[in-house]
Design a protein that fits this description.
- The protein has 172 residues and is of the alpha+beta class.
- The protein is built from 4 helices and 7 strands; from the N terminus they run βααββββαββα.
- Strands 1-2-3-4 form a 4-stranded antiparallel sheet. Strands 5-6-7 form a 3-stranded antiparallel sheet.
- Strand 2 and strand 3 form a beta hairpin.
- Helix 1 packs antiparallel against helix 2.
- The two termini are 32 Å apart.
Length: 172
């Protein structure tokens, strides 16, 4: 996945660009499986137990409910996952999200005081973790959950922060 070049300033390049780990989609996939299984079971039950208009109406109501459940608990999380990105460039941290309306947050790299990570037991299994970006603002830090290969991302960003501080120290 790549950050759009049209949104980068002159001389700016992407260091790390990522989205949350696909493990965030496990819940929505389970909902999809359960709803489809319930719809199939319910359809067979209705055919065996009821007949005529009652079965048709109940089948239609159940079908609409299944579509709404899948849309709300599966499709919407998938779209959120697809449209949320976290990018570090050589100048700033950019968080972007939004399906229709866009929302974003930018922190200049020179305002970032540290980048840390946390990896829990489940995160270790999936190869992801939480990236913690600390800055000098009133908010203090941004926690970005479920980042794939979080240690590698933290290392790349830390190197870029070191490069930036070296340029400042050298008077560049």
């Amino acid at each position: 996945m790549s950050f759009p070049a049209r949104l980068l300033n002159e001389g700016e390049h992407v260091v790390v660009s990522t989205r949350t780990h696909p493990k965030a989609l496990i819940g929505p996939v389970l909902v999809l499986v359960v709803v489809v299984a319930a719809a199939v079971w319910g359809g067979r039950w209705l055919d065996g137990e009821l007949s005529g208009d009652v079965a048709t109406v109940l089948g239609l109501v159940a079908g609409v409910a299944a579509v709404l459940l899948v849309g709300w608990f599966t499709l919407l999380p998938l779209l959120r996952w697809l449209t949320t990105t976290y990018t570090f460039t050589n100048r700033r941290f950019i968080s972007r999200s939004g399906i229709v309306a866009k929302e974003g947050r930018t922190i200049p790299l020179n305002r970032i005081s540290g980048v840390d990570f946390e990896i829990g037991v489940i995160d270790r299994i999936f190869g992801c973790g939480t990236l913690i970006v600390s800055d000098a603002s009133a908010g203090g830090q941004v926690r970005v959950h479920d980042i794939p290969q979080v240690e590698k991302s933290q290392l790349l960003v830390a190197e870029e922060l070191h490069r930036l501080s070296s340029r400042v120290d050298d008077g560049a």
